[in-house]
Amino acid sequence: MDHSNPAEINTRQNIIEAAREIFARYGFRKATMDEIAQAARKAKSSLYHYFKSKEEVFREVVEQEAAEVKGEISRAVAAEKTPQEKFRAYVITRMAAFKRVANLFHAFKDEYLESYGFIERLRENYNRYEIETITGILKEGLEKGVFAVKNLELTAYAIFTAAKGLEYSWALEPDIKKVETNIDSLLDILFHGLVRK
């Protein structure tokens, strides 16, 4: 297959976008290549010209979704001035993105998918990106004298773990304003601590 041919690239992308909707609706396990072909308005046989298997299509879908989420988070963080605003942008953008990219969210949550090596690699790569993003914000806060952090790596990991632990309940909350209020309350604890000074 000629990966440099614009028509081939376009067709491949159309299949990925159709598959994205099918996987989001039915989940990886129940989605079929027939449904993907139908949604892409292609013959099932032509799907196999572009992808070896349903797993390969799913991998492309979740990798594209991960790249989108990373891009959104990076842009949102870069747009803010202070380390505190950067943290808020990071958490809120992350939650909104995970609400929207259903396939990536399920790839991170669904234990059935853990048997696929590409999902494990995607999770590791994505988690590393998030921890690096948090570490960058913490370093900036330290340099500006805004944060007092004893152990940078441990703090970054703790914040990442907290965000991850809350993403499922927040993703299910339909009221984004309520989620933002909860995020602000947690960031207040993060920035000011629990102990009265």
Outline of this structure?
With 197 residues, the protein is mostly helical.
Number of domains: 2
CATH architecture descriptor of the largest domain: Orthogonal Bundle
* Helix percentage: over 70%
Please give the number of β-strands. Answer: 0
Give a quick account of the main beta sheet: strands, pairing sense, barrel closure: none
> Averaged pLDDT, please?
88
Tell me the span between the first and last alpha carbons. Answer: 65 Å
Instruction: List the uncertain runs.
Output: none
CATH topology of the largest domain: Tetracycline Repressor, domain 2
Core attributes:
mainly alpha, Arc Repressor Mutant, subunit A, 79% helix, Tetracycline Repressor, domain 2, single chain, 9 helices
